[in-house]
Amino acid sequence: MTGSRAAFSTEIGTPPDAPSDAFFIIGDCPLNVFVPVGSKAIFGGGLARETVEVTFPLSPLACLRLDRKRGPSRRRVGKAFVHDINRRTAFTAERFVISTHATRRVAEWVRTGAITVGRPKTDSNALSRTFRAKMAAARATAQAPRPQPDDPSVSRNPSSP
């Protein structure tokens, strides 16, 4: 798209009918911003990227998904989608994960997601660079010399020579 970013599209995903087989978990940081980058991913940032996926589990049976790829929809999703969202949810949780079912798979997501506890969920170096660049641009704009009213190079009447 030229000049502007595409708006987010929304999708409500619901798992297959067997809730004990596929259900969404929720954590203390339920909003998940995920950007796939090759075989890796960025969590917590990148809302302006075209490939960003934002998910928010609403209940064990529904999850809101925002992205720039599809139009609005409501659809049944497969176990693989549910499990992927649950893994992301466990990775972004800081203090707790809530599940309607105690399963080995949920315990595994929580165990592997625990490596991120206490770690920043965004790239603090990238945020610092962006902030410093914006502050430098603001300072440069504020310090730029402005023409004074008594400056002869400033014409008050555009028709005068």
Query: Strand fraction band?
Result: 15-25%
Helix run count: 3
Which segments are poorly predicted (pLDDT under 50) over 5 or more consecutive residues?
Answer: 1-5
Q: How many structural domains are formed by the residues? A: 1
Structural class: alpha+beta
Query: Going across the major beta sheet, what is the strand order?
Result: 4-3-5-6-1-7
Portion in helices: 25-40%
Radius of gyration: 24 Å
Overall spatial form: elongated
Concise summary:
By secondary structure, the protein is of the alpha+beta class. 27% of the residues lie in helices and 23% in strands.
Write the layout of secondary structure elements.
Elements: E1 9-14, E2 26-27, E3 32-37, E4 40-43, E5 53-59, E6 62-67, E7 73-76, H1 79-92, E8 97-98, H2 104-113, H3 124-143
Parallel strand pairs: 1-7
Antiparallel strand pairs: 1-6, 2-8, 3-4, 3-5, 5-6
Helix pairs in contact: 1-2
Kindly describe this structure.
The chain is α+β, with helices and mostly antiparallel strands and 161 residues long. The protein has one domain. 27% of the residues lie in helices and 23% in strands. It contains three helices and eight strands, in the order E-E-E-E-E-E-E-H-E-H-H. The chain has a six-stranded mixed sheet, covered by helices on one side. A two-stranded antiparallel ribbon has the order 2-8. Strand 3 and strand 4 (40-43) form a beta hairpin. The protein is elongated, with a radius of gyration of 24 Å. The protein starts with 8 loop residues before the first strand and ends in an 18-residue tail after the last helix. Residues 1-5 have low confidence and may be disordered.
